Amino acid sequence: MQTSSSSVNNTEKQFLNLLYQPYKILFFLPFFFLSTIVLGSLVVVLATIGWPGLARKVPVFWARLNAFLLMSKVRVEGFSNIDPKQSYIVVANHQSHYDILALYGFLDMDFRWVMKQELRKIPFLGLAGVKLGHVFVDRSNIRRANQSIAQVKDQITNGTSILFFPEGTRSAGIDMLPFKRGAFKMATDLELPILPITINGSGRILPSKTLNILPGSVELIIHPPIPLDGRTDKELSPVAREVIESSLR
Known about the structure:
The chain has a domain at 72-245: Glycerol-3-phosphate (1)-acyltransferase. By secondary structure, the chain is an alpha/beta fold. Strands 1-7-6-2-5-3-4 form a 7-stranded mixed β-sheet, with helices on both faces. It is 47% helix and 14% strand. Helix 1 packs antiparallel against helix 2 and helix 6 (182-190) packs across helix 8.
């Protein structure tokens, strides 16, 4: 009986996914690119004329709007673990490009993002990111990457945080890749606590290395901050990894 019910559910899911494909191709993807162009340009204009606070609200609207039109839901757990007056080194696992929509739209924090240099080349999105103070790093050149991150250190004060994907790139499943040390080195340099976040479900909405977008649900779990307690970056990395991994599913 359970096998029969499961078979029916899978058939229904496959049918709904089939219906979703023309919607995705004919409506969502064109709208996503158009909204990125229009709202990315608006960010550039607002930041250029001296309204950075308003400029930072535009990507939040962009992320929430596109998440809604993607027919996806984002649930956040652990807001009480964030002190809005405290700056953090935020670290999260990375399964999908959808992570950008989930974190930007629903994390409700002022943060600068550390992103790979390739995203800087995306029209409108890259320039908007520069205007907002996000950091684009060349992963093939450690010295240049460190220089890029150093340039934003003075902005990480008074409740403004910086967000890293310490894996460096998207994982193919829920199993995380090895953590790079950059985030934890910055935490010790600036003497800031680490705020670990577990992202669940984004890899099922937009799997790594594919454009096969599907509707679904994403969960952000904000864990209690990890104090430095005199630990080195080498010691902090496995602690943060264990916390994030503990809620993966």
